[in-house]
Amino acid sequence: METRAAIQPFFDPATWTVSYVVADPATRRAAVIDPVLDFDFKSGRTGTRSADAIAEHVKAQGLTVEWILETHAHADHLSGARHLQQRLGGRIAIGEHIREVQATFKKLYNLERGFLPDGRQFDHLFKDGETFGIGGLQATALHVPGHTPADMAYRVDDAVFVGDTLFMPDVGTARADFPGGDARVLYRSIRRLLALPPATRLFVCHDYPPEGRAPAWETTVAEQCRRNVHVRDGIGEDEFVAMRQARDATLEVPTLILPSIQVNVRAGQLPPPDDNGVSYLRIPLNAL
């Protein structure tokens, strides 16, 4: 497949997150994928340095943002989608199964009565296999659950933005022990991605590089099939599930899971302020 999409990555070292601007050079239309809102847990302060770097790139390139795409409700960073929408426009979109995630976490956080777990916080909810345009580029939304029930990947030309299904080959795959996660479902989602043509480029949402390697974010189906330490060719479903479950049992809870998800199920909007004008994040005690 001929490559027409221009792809610009943005790596956030504080959360090991990679965001992307995907643009059609012919029409100057673009999508932003998985933007980050900076958050200092110690002080409770948010910042927009990461998102503003994306906005400055968009403006410098003369792009018009049509979409702000989330691959899932992230547990390791707050979403910068709402801030970027206010600066750049565009529709904030995620997979339709975000409703399941919202329902789960509305109960965990005991969110306000006015928060409805029906996806209305987003401008668009994608169905599996739904196609959409980024200028003249045709994109396809792929439902790839397992890490969470709502994970999506986005295919644009010969590139797929895989979210938290796959990492770089020497890092492996995402955990599957979050609420609604399932290692067996994750394996099947990954195999769906790895059934794409071998030259298909895969862009990951995070990189946690081993010592001695710089952060990276682009790989291919062929490289993953050959080298992925968790799910390369020859590793079957049962073997993967046993590995993933044993590994997940040793992992700590992500540092930002409690602050991030209650923002991310709102499409990057902070909780409504109290009567003093201040927004508060809720930390459920002894609930995880």
What structural category arises from helix and sheet content? alpha/beta
CATH architecture: 4-Layer Sandwich
How many beta-strand segments? 15
Radius of gyration: 18 Å
Give the SSE order as H and E letters.
EEEEEHEEHEHEEEEEHEEHHH
Can you tell me the residue ranges where pLDDT is under 50 for at least 5 consecutive residues?
A: none
Look at the structure and name the CATH superfamily: Ribonuclease Z/Hydroxyacylglutathione hydrolase-like
Helix content: 10-25%
Shape: globular
| Number of helices, counting only DSSP H or I runs of 4 residues or more | 7
Strand content: 25-35%
- CATH topology (fold) name: Metallo-beta-lactamase, Chain A
Side by side, the strands of the main sheet go 1-2-3-6-8-9
Arithmetic mean of pLDDT: 96
The CATH class is: Alpha Beta
Through-space gap between termini: 45 Å
3D architecture notes:
With 288 residues, this protein is α/β, with parallel strands linked by helices. The protein has one domain (6-255): 4-Layer Sandwich (Metallo-beta-lactamase, Chain A), CATH 3.60.15.10. It is 25% helix and 25% strand. The chain is built from seven helices and 15 strands. It has helices spanning 49-60, 81-88, 98-109, 183-194, 221-227, 237-248, 257-264; strands at 6-12, 17-24, 29-33, 36-40, 45-47, 64-69, 78-79, 91-95, 124-126, 131-134, 137-143, 152-156, 159-163, 201-204, 218-220. The strands form three sheets. It has a six-stranded mixed sheet, with helices on one face. A hairpin with a 2-residue loop joins strand 10 and strand 11 (137-143). Helix 1 runs parallel beside helix 2 (81-88) and helix 4 (183-194) crosses helix 6 (237-248). The longest helix has 12 residues, at 49-60. It is globular and about 60 Å long. The model has no long low-confidence stretch (mean pLDDT 96).
